[in-house]
Amino acid sequence: MKAVALTGIGQMGMTDIAKPVIENDNDVLLKVERVGVCGSDLHYYQTGRIGSLIVTFPFLIGHECSATVEALGSAVDRVKVGDQVAVDPAAPCYNCDQCKAGRENTCRNLRFLGTPGEGNGCLCEYIVMPQQCCFLPANGAVTLEQAVLCEPFAIGVYAVKRAQMPEDAKIAILGSGPIGLSCMAAARANQARVYMTDRLDYRTEIAANAGADWVGNPDKEDIGKPILQQQPLGIDAVFECAGQQETLDQAADLLKPGGKLVLIGSPRTERISFISDKMRRKEITVVNIRRQSNCTQTAIDLIAAGKVNIDFMITHKFKPEQTKSAFDMVAGYRDGVIKALIEF
Questions:
Q1: Domain count, the chain
Q2: 88/15 Cα distance (integer angstroms)
Q3: In 3-state terms, what secondary structure has residue 29?
Q4: CA-CA distance, 87 to 203, in Å (whole number)?
Q5: What is the 3-state secondary structure (H, E, C) of 303-331?
Q6: Model pLDDT, residue 167
Q7: Could you tell me which of 30, 40, 33, 294 has the C-alpha nearest to residue 147?
Q8: Over the range 216-252, which residues count as b (16 or more CB within 10 Å of their CB) and which as e?
Q9: What is the pLDDT of residue 114?
Q10: Is the pTM value of this prediction over 0.90?
Q11: Does 247 fall in a domain?
């Protein structure tokens, strides 16, 4: 089958690999339809690693996808051949202490698509996944394109859930890429007032058009002043979606005493730091987000019910042989890109 493999730092190309086969009764053979280019994929593309996860080339990346069911293991009863599904890229073991505690996202034996040491990605024609990773998109109410977005949107839903904010919360989202915009959509569904920032004007413009109450560019203004003028007591929660030291410092200034700092962005440095005096005196709670847990169906339901609109995030579409161009576009923030899709 056709696949797109990383062959080196900043290098990828088409290749032929063996089509996967069903090995377990619980397996589903999936024909990949759409694949989203994610920021974590870019880490592997540009640096060959995310923290301790280091790529051995060649390697297949990609984890955001929608697919059509092609064949079933003998015990599969969740989906049938021909179903179009949203794919949860995480396959937990359900047997370790973390899974039994309801923390499948920190499963000690987790297999995640496109992750070194865990499994190949979905930038290929076919993949095999356990049936629990296959979600029917609300009887056709969710398109194949929207089904791809269910993965990043589920992270936004999970982050908002973990923040445990009051009704009508006032929040700031620092970073207006797909994850920040997903957090915004989830928070707006809970009637939150949302302040968003980004260093790229086209992204703040998209955020404003999609429902943010205020947007600002930290390279052009001290974003703390206008936000705190409107919210002089401070912000209930800050969602850090950029993975930058600057945004961590901004969060400490914006948060009210007892506020929550929700860390979602993946820093490219091994260490980050906090201004301990502000964090301690305000008694700020720090919440780390590791992907998402049990929020895929909620994400699908919100989209299917029309309670959120995420279609605006899809800005570009490519064929498999154009995948490197897609990655270069996303890495360079070119042509107003938010989410690029690869269409198989």
A1: 2
A2: 25
A3: strand
A4: 27
A5: HHCCCCCCHHHEEEEECHHHHHHHHHHHH
A6: 82
A7: 33
A8: bebeeeebbeebbeebeebbbbbbbbbbbeebbebbb
A9: 97
A10: yes
A11: yes
Residue in this structure with the two tokens 């994850």, named with its chain if needed: 179
| CA–CA dist 315, 325 (Å, integer) | 14
Please give the Cα distance from 238 to 81 (Å, whole number). 43
Same domain, 118 and 160: no
**CATH code of residue 280:** 3.40.50.720
User: Do 56 and 160 fall within a single domain?
Assistant: no
Range of the domain at 220: 155-288
pLDDT < 70 stretches in the chain: 138-139
Tokens read off for 318? 């490519």
N residues, the chain = 344
pLDDT of residue 140: 76
For residue 332, the domain's CATH number is 3.90.180.10
- In this structure, is residue 301 part of a structural domain? no
> How many other C-beta atoms can be found within 10 angstroms of the C-beta atom of residue 179?
26
Closest C-alpha among 121, 155, 341, 147 to residue 265 = 155
Contact in structure between 129 and 27 (CB atoms under 8 Å): yes
Residue 238: closest CA among 177, 193, 287, 171: 171
